[in-house]
Structure formats: C-alpha cells, structure tokens
Amino acid sequence: MTTEYEVRYAVGQREVKQYDTSELRCEFLADNIMQPGKVYWVYSHYERFMVGGAVPTNAALTLDTIDPLKSDAFLARRELGIINVGGAGKVHVGEQCFELATEEALYVGQTTESVVFESLDVANPARFYLNSAPAHHAYPHKKVGKADANVLHMGAGETCNERDINQLIISGVVQTCQLQMGLTRLNPGSNWNTMPAHQHDRRNEVYFYFDLEPEQAVCHFMGEPTETRHIWVGNENAVLSPPWSIHCGVGTGSYAFIWGMAGENLDYNDMDKYPPDQLR
Questions:
Q1: For residue 115, what is the enclosing H or E element?
Q2: For 2-27, b where at least 16 C-beta lie within 10 A, e where not — what string?
Q3: What is the largest CA-CA distance in the chain?
Q4: Is the pLDDT of residue 1 over 80?
Q5: Among 254, 59, 41, which residue's Cα sits nearest to residue 160?
Q6: Average pLDDT for 44-70
Q7: DSSP label of 192
Q8: pLDDT per residue over 67-99, tens digit each?
Q9: Separation of CA 193 from chain center
Q10: Could you give the percent of the chain with pLDDT greater than 90?
Q11: 198: annotated binding-site residue?
Q12: How far apart, in whole angstroms, are the C-alpha atoms of residue 112 and residue 213?
C-alpha cells in the first residue's frame, strides 16, 4: 500500500494530567509521517485536522481518499496545504502542474481533481509535508514561493528567540477556508521557537520540526499554562497541539519548524499569550 493512516481521538486536559511519557507521546507525537514511497496521514479529531507526508521515490504517489473521510475523493470536502522540505518535486492537480523547490508551498482548494506527487531526482526526493482541514468552498489553487511569503521578524538574540516567521498559506497571501501554514527559521544562536508561549482556544495547531541533526533534539512544551508537559522530538517529527494547550519549544541545536492550524477564524493574532513567569 502507498497510503497509510492512523486516527487520533481528542482527549481533554483532565485526562492528560494523568499521562506518563509514553502516553503523551502516543497521543500527541507523530514521528513516522515521512516514509519513502508512501503517503502517510494522522487523522486528528481536533478540528478534524490532518497532518501527513508524501515522499515519492521510484514512482509518483497519488493522494487517495481514506476511510474516515467517507468520500470518493480526498479533497471532496477538504483543502490541502503542502510545503516541500526535500529535493525539488512536482505536484499535479488535475491538468495543472506546480513545481516546488525546498521550502516552497502550494495551496490546493476543495476539489475532486486528482493530486499526484512526484520527485524530480530520485536520489534526492521531494519530501512533501501535508496539512488538511475541512473546507466549505473551492478556492483557487496557488503556489507560494519564498518571495511571496509575508515575513515577520520576531524575538531578539538576548532572549534566544530571534526568528523569521514566513507566513505562506495565510489570509492576505492565499484565500483559504480555515487552513493556515507557515515556516519559522531561527537565527544562529537562538533556540526558543515561540516565546511567549501561547494557545488558541479557537483552533488547534501542529508543529513539524525539521533540519535537525540526528544527534540533536527539540523539547516541545504543551499542556495548560499552569500544568505544562514536555515531549522530546527529533527531525521530521510533529506534535499535535489541542486548543487547550500551549505550544513552544527549545532545541539543543539549529532547526526550523512548520506550523499549521485550523479552526474558527483566520485571524493569525487570535492567541492567548503566557509570558515565562506565568508558566508552571
């Protein structure tokens, strides 16, 4: 099979307070979504958000529907965001073809058209990171290159969180139903990816960490602001963040991460912030 998936059901903050390390990782960590020759999905019941990967090697990969969607086509009632973190590749959407270099994005609107993933060089395959959310309208497909992103320069070297937030699939750049995605790259010497920590009571968020050396790791913080928990993650791991959870992280080496979210609104700044002295 070239398409595989798993389902993650929603759990509340009261249950999570009782979880040990293995239970936290089982519920919130996605550590095998980038598999050569496969499309792999984690179907989350938080906002019905899906996080996945497509790594075409010797053959192209097709975006097939999966049983939880109960539809003949994957995008019959969904929209899709794609960011390439590998070698150059192509995404065929119906009769259209979009070539994506590393760290370029593609938004695919609600459609019943076929979607096919392809690598330009099998020796250096594309690694397409995927997010999908329910959609109520078919907006146009759109490629977003690095020059098209809205870039926010945030943080400072003194607080170890100087970073560039590249807003790729977001209101003002691409018209979407609810999906938002972007790529944050930290400046040399900075290792905190988000500070102050924040949560979105009106939407979920998923962090996907990449460009991390094999011997390094990121400590991702989650949980309620006064009941924090942590998960150690490696390269190309993702963490699902429920609406009731904060999200931030700190790395032992250089890295970048992709954030994706969906929910009640498209206001990027709709978040509740918690400075370090308020965290427990």
A1: strand 115-119
A2: ebebeebeebeeeebeebeeeebbeb
A3: 53
A4: no
A5: 254
A6: 97
A7: B
A8: 999 999 999 999 999 999 999 999 999 999 999
A9: 14
A10: 95
A11: yes
A12: 39
Residue 126 has pLDDT above 90, yes or no: yes
Does residue 262 contact residue 179 with C-beta atoms inside 8 Å?
A: yes
Q: Is 247 annotated as a binding residue?
A: yes
d(CA 153, CA 225): 25
Q: What angle do CA 237, 266, 154 make, to 5 degrees?
A: 60
Tell whether 205 is in a known binding site: yes
* Nearest CA-CA partner of 270 in 242, 243, 250, 234: 243
Measured between alpha carbons, how far is 72 from 50 in angstroms, rounded to an integer? 17
φ, ψ at 69 (rounded to 5°)? -80, -25
| 141 appears as a binding residue in the annotation | no
pLDDT tier at 267 (50, 70, 90 boundaries)?
confident
Mean pLDDT along residues 241-247: 96
Q: Which domains does the chain have, with CATH numbers?
A: 3-278 (2.60.120.10)
Per-position DSSP letters for 13-76, written without gaps between them:
HHHHTT--HHHHHHHHEE-----BT-EEEEEESSTT-EEEEEB--SS-EE----GGG-SSSTTS
Q: Binning pLDDT at 50, 70 and 90, where does residue 265 land?
A: confident
Contact 73, 112 (CB under 8 A): yes
Percentage of the chain beyond pLDDT 70 is: 100
